[in-house]
Amino acid sequence: MASYLNKTHTILLVSESRSSSSYQMFNKTTTALERVIKLYEQKLKEMNPQASNITYDISNLNEFIDSLYDITLMVLDERAGLYEGLSKADVKKCILAFLKNQA
């Protein structure tokens, strides 16, 4: 999954429920992964508005991803000129690789 971290154009598709979906485009896969993390952090702030500090670990983030109706990253393979879809499981693996690179 670390090979996806250096990819360019990425589309993030998120459905929190069956009736809601959104997409965002990013110039880098890592920026899309950061957005997924931010979505979780925003959710935590909504759930804990009085908390000044909120901590979580990767298992909490993975539970959030699993709770979504759907999440997909469409990552551009520039050589082939095609987008490759990454599943929830792949998104979780990419986020873990991304966070390990940040440490």
TrEMBL record:
Entry-linked Pfam families: ER
Coiled-coil features, chain-numbered ranges: none
Source species, domain of life: Eukaryota
Entry similarity comment: Belongs to the E(R) family.
Protein name, entry field: Enhancer of rudimentary homolog
Organism: Florenciella parvula
Organism taxonomic ancestry: Eukaryota, Sar, Stramenopiles, Ochrophyta, Dictyochophyceae
